[in-house]
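Attaching the record inline, Q. Sequence:
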Amino acid sequence: MKKIKYSKIREKIFPLKLEKEKSDRLAHITHYLQNHSEKVDFRKKNLKAYLNGNTESIAAEPEFQYELKIDWDIPFPPHSNPKFTFIDLFAGIGGIRLAFQSLGGKCVFTSEWNEYAKKTYEANFGEVPFGDITKIKEYDIPDHEILLGGFPCQPFSLAGVSKKNALGKAHGFLDKTQGTLFFDIARILKEKQPKAFLLENVKNLVSHDKGNTFKIINDTLNDLGYNVVSKIIDGRHYVPQHRERIMIVGFRKDLKGAIKKFKFPELPIANKKVKDILDLEVDPKYTLSDKLWQYLQNYAAKHKALGNGFGFGLANLDSITRTLSARYYKDGAEILIPQQGKNPRRLTPKECSRLQGFPEKFLVPVSDCQAYKQFGNSVVSPLIKSVGRELIKALEIDET
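Structure, as predicted:
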């Protein structure tokens, strides 16, 4: 049977600007296209409904009446014979998916609220994430073996729990985490009971609220039936960037051998250098203007006089950078590249991609401003892959 190119499908059903699409119509369609042969809830009749009966649409083509055969002409196509399934929550631009897909997994559901991040995600994986996870029912999410998520850290309030105790009212994990995005992970774990999960967050999650936040997270995961381990790992072992993040790994308690087999990866020698990720030729627009460069120098001098450590970060090209953040689009101050005979410059979006360990073929279809936000919010993908390899090894899944 002749295959249909994904790019052809895209031309027929996508709006001119994906980031302007506010409904989950495209999420339903693209999830169906990647999972129509699986036992998921995205049925052909739903797809036809979303295509509005357009006779020019792909739904009217003969191949569609039997089984879609798609030529995935995208950088990171789905596996046709996956070793395991996973879901990608708070997906961003897919740094975690990239890691687990490269290990042989297939993503059966993904969610991300930012419209511009969705555009980058779709360009690389051929799938539009569903939107706000807080509005998605846990029972509508397909069954999966591994749950993945780089969830945002929001404050956990113990006051509400204390008040319920005082009133003699019962409370459980849902009450403890209500109002935080971790709550959505908890309710999905409770409903779907995947074999394992990997959660990624900033290292300060451990010390937030004198450790109470992290205790609630661990207690909740334990109450949901999982054995949990965690470790703070610096991304500098994989890329030339200082980026400490906590990795939280859990295995369902009935899989008794998994937690015993799992070990965090032995870290490679941290010998990465900034100069290895830089472009040979860079557009002059990335060089700081005289006005901005003078402002940053004055700002640094002011805080140095006050005894503070605030200021710009001029990178040592034979060493590593500071942590790339989502605010990088503002002035690039935390990571500036020195230039002989002229003002320093920002990293280009492609250099930010490499700084997070993304492959060269990873596409960046958005503006520089959006790209800086996206990579600043993303993960060191090779680090995730390293932890993921140990996770699937503990589950006795053969890596491809």
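The CA atoms of residues 237 and 268 lie 6 Å apart. Confidence is low (pLDDT under 50) at residues 39-43, 52-56, 157-173.

More tomorrow.
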